[in-house]
Write a structure and sequence with these properties.
- The protein has 294 residues and is α/β, with parallel strands linked by helices.
- It has a single domain, classed as Alpha-Beta Barrel (TIM Barrel).
- It is built from ten helices and eight strands.
- Strands 1-2-3-4-5-6-7-8 form an eight-stranded parallel sheet.
- The protein is globular.
């Protein structure tokens, strides 16, 4: 029988030995999966007083997991119905990151159909005449509303995708908050539009079924709990080519959201598409227009 003093000495010796050994480097998801592009990140919930400080924090975690590129939208604050000034401030924060890290971040301009004329001006400033390559829509108005049509028409001129926040809440959505049903209605009005159903509505089993018959809708895997089976169902019902990896970092972690794809029981070719290939294909038209190497 070991007395307390002997046990304490053995524990201390073990700790000293473990500290003396070099620690293994953090695991990085590379190799067969190919380049990882994250379609859904924000500067919210990150430490730092400036966009550059916040994005430095985001990159630290992205590098740990081997995430090569991120799509960044919104700035520090999530507004349910932003004013023109707030839209401009949020987009300016993202533009500062794109200027500093053009090889690590793509930008999606934050627009609101409740500020239609100003949003069209922001599209021209940030996408047509600036470095951004897509549109992010949040909760100001349900995306099935006809007020979105001028924004969609502007998106089609540059062949850029729209990332639309969606949710299916048990107690009912917030005013103006879209569901996958709204995404389907918008997508059917504009069959040439490439639209990403953000969060797959949260309730992903319903969300996948809702968008299934609308081929120009892809689902974004960001933001809901990493439940086993979501990617398998998505591939079975939609095909791997309609699934897009996203994390919703910094509100969510890269690791928990990557686990949905990396741990899925699907072919490696499907994982490569979901983790980067599909987003790359979606952005290729606008990237070529802007002179990116693709």
């Amino acid at each position: 029988m070991i007395d307390r003093r002997t046990l304490f000495k053995r524990v201390l010796a073990g700790l000293a030995l473990s500290q003396a050994r070099p620690m293994p480097s953090s695991p990085v998801i590379t190799g067969a999966t190919g380049p990882i592009w994250d379609a859904h990140t924000h500067l919210t919930s990150l430490a730092g007083e400036t966009p550059e400080e916040r994005f430095t924090q985001l990159l630290k975690y992205a590098d740990r997991l081997g995430v090569e590129r991120v799509v960044l939208s919104l700035g520090y604050t999530i507004f349910s119905d932003p004013s023109p000034q707030q839209l401009r401030e949020e987009n300016d924060q993202v533009l500062r990151v794109l200027h500093r890290w053009p090889d690590r971040a793509f930008g999606f301009v934050y627009l609101s159909p409740n500020q239609l004329e100003f949003s069209l001006q922001e599209f021209d400033r940030c996408v047509r005449d600036g470095p951004m390559v897509g549109i992010k829509l949040l909760t100001a108005r349900r995306c099935s509303a006809p007020e979105l049509d001028p924004i969609v028409e502007r998106a089609l001129t540059m062949k850029v995708p729209i990332l639309q926040h969606t949710w299916l809440k048990i107690g009912g959505n917030e005013p103006g908050e879209s569901t996958p049903y709204d995404v389907v209605e918008l997508a059917r009005r504009h069959p040439q539009l490439s639209i990403i159903c953000g969060h797959t509505g949260g309730d992903w089993e319903r969300g996948i079924r809702i968008v299934r018959a609308t081929s120009n809708v892809s689902i974004c895997l960001a933001g809901f709990d990493p439940t086993s089976g979501v990617v398998e169902m998505g591939v079975r019902e939609l095909g791997a080519e309609r699934l897009v990896y996203g994390s919703d970092s910094g509100g969510r972690s890269f690791a928990s959201q990557l686990s949905k794809v990396v741990g899925a029981e699907i072919p490696e070719s499907g994982k490569r598409e979901i983790l980067g290939g599909n987003l790359h294909r979606m952005l290729t038209p606008v990237l070529k227009t802007k002179g990116y190497r693709v």
